[in-house]
Design goal:
The chain has 293 residues and is mainly alpha-helical. It has one domain. Helix content is 73%, strand content 0%. The protein is built from twelve helices and no strands.
């Protein structure tokens, strides 16, 4: 289920990249939020948990909505200007950032070995970025912003996930996208022909289905097994990049990606042990997606 989910997410991102050549990221985020609402309503109708649509933690829910919106906007822009594999290599640093941000935000204690692993992983991101040898663009900054906001989103979701209903968390995240992007729509809107609207609907459905698969995967398997499956996205990124966008990652990008993935896996395995922190370095059930939503 996890492999299927992340394969769907990668296909979702490839479709976004194809649309980003014609439409602004603001419009893409807005349309996905708009087409996601009927799916969320169905989820709410099937939710048997007691409660209302009012969040238990309104301030954190609002802040999470802002981080989700900014993460999606930044990621979609990065997909529009950078190769898929390079964007994923940077986004994969999000689990490492979660480990770092959990110290001041959650009061977590991180041992020396985990901090060294984070350092090596972030060095892998620098290898991908290659500062000094290649010009750093706004796309690289956008990908780093998406990874950072994704980490903040995961930390907030981890903190309030047991108190809030999953459908309500998803509704407020999509609502934030809808309101914030809707305010900017008059400045970037371009009419969408029927085929492009159909693709946007498919993208929204794919994101919703993939989220449910991730939740089911975590419910039926151990996090230490499910979490590393997210790194399978790099295989899809290389495949889609070569087939549809004439993109072929070089040896330096692949080396940096390998460093990020290796250290991400190390942290996942460390976090799976009973004596380590309860804050997972990857997205668990109810935490939402890596940086595309």
């Amino acid at each position: 289920m996890a492999l299927a989910a992340f394969g769907i997410f990668a296909t979702h991102d490839a479709l976004i990249k194809s649309l980003a050549a014609s439409y602004a990221p603001v419009q893409l985020v807005f349309c996905i939020a708009l087409f996601s609402f009927p799916l969320i309503l169905v989820m709410l109708a099937l939710d048997r948990a007691h409660g209302t649509l009012l969040p238990v933690n309104p301030r954190l829910m609002v802040f999470r909505g802002l981080s989700v919106a900014l993460s999606a906007l930044a990621a979609y822009y990065a997909f529009s200007v950078l190769p898929l594999a390079q964007v994923y290599a940077i986004l994969f640093s999000s689990p490492l950032m979660i480990t770092v941000l959990a110290i001041p935000l959650l009061g977590e204690k991180v041992g020396l070995r985990r901090m060294l692993a984070v350092g090596v992983g972030l060095c892998g991101v620098l290898v991908v970025l290659r500062p000094g040898s290649t010009p750093l663009s706004l796309g690289h900054l956008a990908a780093l912003t998406a990874a950072t906001c994704g980490a903040l989103n995961a930390i907030i979701a981890r903190r309030i996930g047991r108190q809030e209903r999953p459908a309500v968390m998803l509704m407020y995240a999509m609502g934030g996208n809808f309101v914030l992007m809707g305010m900017a729509m008059p400045f970037v809107y371009r009419p969408m022909p029927g085929p492009d609207v159909a693709v946007m609907i498919v993208v929204a459905v794919m994101a919703f289905v993939a989220m449910q698969l991730v939740i089911l995967a975590y419910r039926n398997g151990e996090a230490v097994v499910v979490a590393p499956m997210q790194y399978s996205q790099i295989l899809w990124a290389v495949l889609y990049g070569a087939l549809f966008f004439d993109e072929f990652p070089d040896a330096v990008t692949l080396t940096g990606t390998a460093l990020v993935i290796a250290n991400g896996l190390y942290i996942v395995i460390r976090e799976s042990r009973p004596a380590t922190s309860r804050t997972r370095p990857v997205l668990g059930p109810g935490n939402g997606k890596p940086p595309a939503l």
